[in-house]
Amino acid sequence: MKSTEFEKYMDIAPEVKEALEKGLPVVALESTIITHGMPFPQNVETALMVEDEIRKYGAVPATMAIIKGRLKVGLSREELDYVGSAKDVVKCSRRDIPFVVSGKKDGGTTVAATMIMADMAGIKVFATGGIGGVHRGAETSMDISADLEEFARTNVAVVCAGAKSILDIGLTLEYLETKGVPVIGYGTEELPAFYTRESGFNVDYRLDSPEEIAESLKIKWGMGLDGGAIIANPIPEEYAMDKAVIDTAISQALADAKAEGIKGKKVTPFILEKVMELTGGESLESNIQLVLNNAKVASWIAAGLSKI
Ligand code: PSU
Ligand code: MN
Description:
Elements: E1 10-12, H1 14-22, E2 26-29, H2 32-37, H3 42-56, E3 60-67, E4 70-73, H4 77-85, E5 90-92, H5 97-102, E6 107-109, H6 111-121, E7 125-127, H7 138-141, H8 146-153, E8 157-160, H9 169-178, E9 183-186, E10 205-207, H10 210-222, E11 229-232, H11 243-259, H12 267-278, H13 282-307
Parallel strand pairs: 1-4, 2-3, 2-7, 5-6, 7-8, 8-11, 9-10, 9-11
Antiparallel strand pairs: 3-4
Helix pairs in contact: 3-4, 3-13, 6-8, 10-13, 11-12
Manganese (II) ion binds next to loops.
């Protein structure tokens, strides 16, 4: 039996609680993208737009964060402003959660931590921008995101725009295969690469409707095949970046990270910030648009799951 001890530490927003009790569609959202992925105030503005998008498509948004040691499932406007502008927010993955709770600290939840909290609360679908993965050079650095382990064990489907080429996309796919995590392309055979629609790698299964995706998730979990799934949703054509521009920025950002000796959990936020600087904000606009697009698809999948 699953432990319910977490309930002591968790606050579920009234709107989210009601939707869960009624079996209505709910979509989880992460907060590392807010605390470590985008600058203030665009981070809070984006978070609000994403929540609105989810409501527009008939689901209830549940943005996750840790505030003063409480696991928050669904944030009020004040709470969102608070985490979006607070200093000393911990980037929280699986390992960090108990310490941020005991220390009554603030935490931005990564994909891994958001999946954990979503699972605790009973939310099956989660929308984000990009996931962590196997970093380039991982054969010597061993830098592999804890997100990948979470996909292997936690029953939450994550809608993302594929894997960024700050990662080694090929190795990330190999890792997911080993762990039994399906990568589903929404309307695409090719795995998108976040800022661009192409990566040169194929997905495992192409599914063209949210209903088919919901159905396959239902079958997976119904059979007791635990673990998450990745739903890769390409950035809309009009917001996709030029491959050469983004590749150059990423190479430069990776070189800077290496030169400055950036390690551990600082790597991803450092590179994201550099890429934003180097593309003069163009990557930020793409990032915002692709998250909105993922929120829409996640809402449809959540609706599909609530109907079966
Ligand atoms: N990729 C992005 N934007 C992000 C992240 C990744 O394009 O904000 C964040 C997510 O929260 C993800 C985390 O879970 O970075 C992965 O960090 P790491 O590589 O340290 O596991
Ligand atoms: Mn890492």
